[in-house]
């Protein structure tokens, strides 16, 4: 019996090792933000009354605000660089994803320094800045410790757009929960 227990413990440890390696320690705000993203995606998936979507969106905004605090700031989040695009003025727009939420079939947020109207102009990383120099040495797939802040929406949570998955109204609503693009201002990016 003792040998069986040892083998079972070894098997559990071997299986848990890779899972734990994918889920590193992250700041409490990132863990709470992840939890809210997942919780409200699951609630959306279970919702059959389209009229309740607005209530879910407002509740999710409040959960995000609680996770981030009054200024909607984040500090020391572990994210993965997904893309770098040049701006018309020679700077960078960058997209980061959370490696723990990278499953295409589940919630998959993107954090980028762009957005509608003046948000994109304010958040672009200018050429010859400290962040620009850091990003010059990075490639998609690299992980980084990232800090900054979100922009508030009318419900007090972070402003976001849904991914352009489809032109169908139902698919656009679903994308708000499955693949939101959050507009952020990056203040620190450190390759890991």
Structural description of this entry:
It is a single chain. Helix content is 41%, strand content 24%. The protein contains six helices and six strands. The chain has helices at 2-22, 28-46, 53-68, 118-123, 130-136, 169-178, and strands at 73-86, 92-97, 110-112, 143-150, 160-162, 180-191. Helix 2 (28-46) packs antiparallel against helix 3 (53-68). The longest helix has 21 residues, at 2-22. It is globular and about 50 Å long. The N and C termini lie far apart (44 Å).
Note the topology.
Layout: H1 2-22, H2 28-46, H3 53-68, E1 73-86, E2 92-97, E3 110-112, H4 118-123, H5 130-136, E4 143-150, E5 160-162, H6 169-178, E6 180-191
Helix pairs in contact: 2-3
Features:
24% strand, single chain, 6 helices, 192 residues, disordered N terminus, 5-stranded mixed barrel, globular, alpha+beta
Summarize this, please?
This protein is of the alpha+beta class and 192 residues long. It is built from six helices and six strands.
Q: Helix tally? A: 6
Which radius of gyration do the C-alpha atoms yield? 19 Å
**How many strands, which pairing sense, and closed or not: the largest β-sheet?**
5 strands, mixed, barrel
Mean pLDDT: 82
Which strand order does the major sheet show? Answer: 1-2-3-6-4
| Portion in beta strands | 15-25%
The best one-word shape is: globular
Based on secondary structure, the structural category is alpha+beta
Helix-residue proportion: 40-55%
Separation of termini? 44 Å
